């Protein structure tokens, strides 16, 4: 077995280059507080990216991720502090809704892009109903976890390692994960082997829903309030994170560790762009450009591999 | 082919039902003409974006243009900026229209170049490129709201012929062009052939790359034209003006009976889908529902229609 998966080489390299660039531009970031500030917001993005990765792993794409994370944030901020039982029930309902979505897509052979685009309206509408104007509070225990200051290593780094580890064990090392990846690789073979594709896709969506719920909760723990539009940009960020992390769009070839690295890279890219004093007008465009550049770099690497 | 077997038949039935339901809600039932005019006006924008999206979707699974909203904003912003510095005569209008169409052409070529050169799925290519277009629009706009030339504002909001909105006539004329293109031209047959089986089409000698390049360019030009007209209609370009047309363009295609899996599409259904979508939203409005419920029901209705209309049974 090789020490480092070649699929991870490019993501690790891009993260390393970006870290060096940020420290070079802003040497004061090279401290406990600085690193925590740089990577703080990466935790919810990493969770959302893992969720998106699971959807992409089964050959779908989720265009409602941002709206869903926003809805979870609204539930967490508006209902969970005052009425924990109802809040937990609603969050469970969100996960079940995701599972139902997966079952519907597989049973009727619908294009996930259309269904999730429609669902983004449903999540957005529900979020507005629950929290008409920005507000709410974060449950005390949630803020305590997210803003904890463990010795030596900042919380953001510990959380990222934890997310990568759990996702890696679940997707790459468990029999359950193998079955889900097989669904993306060859759905017909899975079905011929006697597995229900409807149930498998529902499970994949449910697991993705769990990670997305955690993303929304983590976000509220950091921002301490909710808003129906708080996480809309997560849709792009999560897709970009999966691709930056070496995931493929088809065939169930993904990398959970890569996805977390991709999310960290994207968060850092945001700080890097603001250190460069780039006009905010170009922030969105720069993310699109980074995405295109990474895809181009990957194509070059692959062609070089083919030639040798 | 009998009428009720046509793929667009049920979409039209649904549109009429939605019209009657909304009409009966309005006080005294006298608002029928006003409702029809509004539906035709706003429906025209959905029709124009839907026609382009339909052509792209016809090319088969994975082919969807997600850059429509950003293209609309970019074309609307830049063409109005150009016209703002001119005298407002016929030359101004022509320059604005041409610039919008050229922007659309450029966007389409850029989209296809990304898809082709980087070999990435069209969804990702158009999505990432759309953020560049959006940034370009934000950067050039600078929060200014430039008014369109009075002649264009009057034309887009007017009803000069038979009391039907001018925009609806424009959309109708372009729809007829699309109908001819899709049903009578070799190009339309090639697009359908690629959607039914890209491999078979290539082996049969269809220039797949050239045909798909053309569809992406046409789609982007339609989006640019819609952005231009919408900016003139609403008295200026806004940065979020294209937002709802991403889902709308896909929804009207699917509701109209075109296959989401590609290879089979029709123009009359686009109109039915566009009118239906507008009427459903105004029906929810006339019930006096809040924004949250309205969003929620729009999403549920679209998914329900897609599930019923375009679903195939899972392959054994």
TrEMBL record, chain B:
CDD domains: TM_PBP1_transp_AraH_like
Keyword NAD set for record: no
Entry's transmembrane regions: 90-115, 122-140, 167-187, 208-231, 237-257, 269-287, 293-311
Subcellular location: Cell membrane
Membrane topology: Multi-pass membrane protein
Alphabetical UniProt keywords: Cell membrane, Membrane, Transmembrane, Transmembrane helix
Chief site of localization: membrane
GO CC annotations, alphabetized: plasma membrane
GO MF annotation list: transmembrane transporter activity
Protein's name in the database: ABC transporter permease
